[in-house]
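Re: [help] complex structure
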Amino acid sequence: MYAPNRNRSTVVAVLIALAVLALILHQLGQLQPLENLGLGLLEPLFRGALGVSQDAQNLTGGFADVNALRDQIKQLQNQVNELAINSVRVRELENENAILRQQLGYKQSNPDFDLVGAAVLQRNPDQARIIGQDPTNLTRYIIVDQGDAEGVQVGMPVVTPQGLVGRVTAVGTHWAKVLLITDPSSSVNGVVQSTRATGVVQGEVGNLVTNNLIIQYVPQGEAIKVGDLILTSGIGGNFPKRLVIGEVTEVRKHDIDLFQEATIRPTVDFTRLEFVLILKKFTPSDITQEPTPTPTRAPTPTRVPTPTQ
Amino acid sequence: MTLWLLIPFLLLVAVVQVTLIPLVAIAGYKIDLALIIVVAQALVGVPGTAAQWGFIVGVFLDLASGLPFGIHALTLTVVGWLMDLGQAAFFRGNVLAPPVAMISATFLYNVLILAILALFNSPVAWGEYLLRVILPASLLNTVAMPIAYFPLQWLHRRVRPQLEV
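Output below.
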């Protein structure tokens, strides 16, 4: 590897050419077996390193009272999360109840119609452990220890009991790469729980501290306020309906704009992710059943942030 | 013989970058340990070898990254090569070399990644990234550089005869 001086430029040129070739082959999908093999070999190292780090964390935080407090905080946080989720469920049931009452009224006023209720979501989750994160500050990916062999496929949604985490973008034998919803290139169709107004939820550039999201393309006429919960709308079929995404913390509305947007604090704590659930099977929502229409033009998922005010 | 030492070392760097560094992120920003190692190698290591270090550690990072395979290998090779040139032309013996090299390397590394993403039809908001991601990251890397710089300097003084083939 250490070439004499006169050959070093040639070596660099060869290495750059190899890297460019790898990029091209990756784009053509020809490198998948090699990537699969490589990450498969590295996976035990990742697991080992995480084990060591957890041991180290336990040692450094070695005071018993600190650990006890930490556990207590964790328990309380779990309780808060459970309550938040229950609250969401109750409100969803209320909404569902209202819709069903409306449908019942509709059925009673149209006795000649043959209507049937349908289950909304079918889940078959597998719990996956996070074994690594993207090395740069530019993107938001995690690597989990469930892959092809466990039935994981590209495009599957990834969740925790607290809410939506992201989507599987690459799969190996026993690993999968998950694009987090906090990545600026991620795009999820969302709905405001209280008003059913729809929009597109995207990650925010430079959101490293808060991991905040932005809901965009909410029509000006729709009501959206601080404290509103944002759920997945299920439109597009990539995600199930009614997964919790987060809570609105700021609304930006200008009369001259066609759409309004809002900042969302995700319910998932992305800095403390350890285990996630991969939804291997769910019933995609039928766009024609949505109570409110979506924006007419679905924006392309890009790495473009929305300028904050 | 050298590669037998170098590859496990750079593999260890990549594993630490992917697993442990995110756990000690400061204000959400992760230290680019692999980049710091490559820059430190350009400054205190065997002259002209930082590009090779960048390529090897870049391949390992590519395996763990969600970005297109080859992107880290390419960017870290280029950064290592330019830092090698900079060391030969400007940095040698200059006390400001480590911070200046680190800041410029962080800018270059991130801008190259974004440029490649842009090339692959992923529109990039340059201003936002420069102000909100790259600038803070370059400051963090500069502050963190002694973590790699001095141990690597010490290591090279101890094992340089072995590494200089």
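The two ends of chain B are 9 Å apart (CA to CA).
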